[in-house]
Amino acid sequence: MDAVIEEFLEQFADPVLLTGLAQVAVAAALAALVVGLSHLRGLTLERELAVALVRGLIQIVAMGSIVGVLLTVDFVWSGVILLGMMIGATWISKNRGEGLPGVVRVSFFAIVFGSGLVIITMTLAGAIEATVRNLVPVGSMIIANAMQINSLALDRFKSEIASNRAEIEAGLALGAPPAAVISRHVETGVQASLIPVIDSLKSLGWVWIPGIMAGMILAGENPIYAALYQFVIMAMIFAAGGLTSMTSSLLIGKYVFTDAEQLRRVETDSSS
Amino acid sequence: MAIPESTVLVVVGPSGAGKSSFLRLLNRLDEPTERMVLLDGEDYRNIPPRALRRRVGLVPQDPALVPGTVFDNVARGPLLRDETHLEELLERLGLTGYEDRDVEELSGGEKQRIAIARTLLNDPDVLLLDEPTSHLDSAAEERVETLLVDLIHELDLTVVMVTHDEDQARRIGDRVLVLRDGRLDRVGPVEEVLA
């Protein structure tokens, strides 16, 4: 145990950290520029931006300092770690869908289902090595992307409902089934949420050489294999994200109606 | 308060009095918080919502048509997809040959007539109309109003119509309900209440 603590403390004494801090300072200056511009342009985003930057730095350094220990724990713990990440992802994602009924339940279920299914399938298929040091970083990447896609889907769905309330209620008033009335808006949410990952897939390899592939090549891996594995990662992200946003949109599309098939109020709703 | 069969009840009152809310309640787009709504003596909460809304059809103030063609709009929702019935109704509403027109290209009066057509295709017992002519110019208003009067008599409909126009209320209504601050203020025959 003493050895673990010693190793934990030793990493803070490494002179490379000074270089790292200098790099952080330059990157933070650029980020601060954006925060400043946001303030000047009256985007009222500066608070959220600043908090997100500081929070991101603290979280990643905290994770960096314990990751050495984390990656040596027993394999069984990886499930617990990933589940913890999914809970965190739900927490972040639900803010985007704030005001939608059942948003926490729906986000949690969708993220667990979408990313869980992909992680388990790919681990069973051997594409993700069944060790903590593989499962946790790759799993976290899938979960983080599922979260992002879920947020986009909820955000878009919410504004669809707000701006199309009259049309949805006109459909209900005719005695049409809620699922039929809402389906166009559910689809719009899913489509919008998948645009970034589809664009990433399109630009893969010519506009964008992702980190994992670059790292594998630098570590001496066969470049073609590195490319194939990078595609596997992208496909996993796409699959998990697509499953997540379809699940959450479909479920939210149900929760948004009462048992008597009335459209519930959504909090940001500006209509009367 | 009761609405007798085959009568036209006009609902008037200042804006914010709850006229539209009253229609939403009758169509069960909103839930009654106290008291009950009975349809043919039956608590309407015992009727499945879709069946109820087909029997008590609402034409909203904003036609809120779905992007697409006229056919996409009128064929949506109704149980009846009997196209002879559809053609006949479109003819009745002066919309023959409109099936493939894009709703974006239509005038306000045409959109309103399509909204009326899609509700009538359900063959409702009760028709709820929320200011059906308020967005229209006077020529279109007259046309839609005449059409409504003919349809109401021909189909022997029970109608609840919201209007802010007391002259229109006199022309169309049998009975009047005056709402004020969300409460029933007066109800009775048109000639008495709007004397």
From TrEMBL, chain A:
Record's bilayer topology term: Multi-pass membrane protein
Superkingdom of origin organism: Archaea
Subcellular location: Membrane
InterPro entries documented for this protein: UPF0014_fam
Primary localisation category: membrane
Transmembrane annotation, as ranges: 16-37, 49-69, 75-92, 104-128, 203-220, 226-244
One annotated Gene Ontology cellular component of this protein: plasma membrane
Transmembrane helix among keywords: yes
Listed Pfam families: UPF0014
Keyword annotations from UniProtKB, A to Z: Membrane, Transmembrane, Transmembrane helix
Similarity remark: Belongs to the UPF0014 family.
Name the record gives this protein: ABC transporter permease
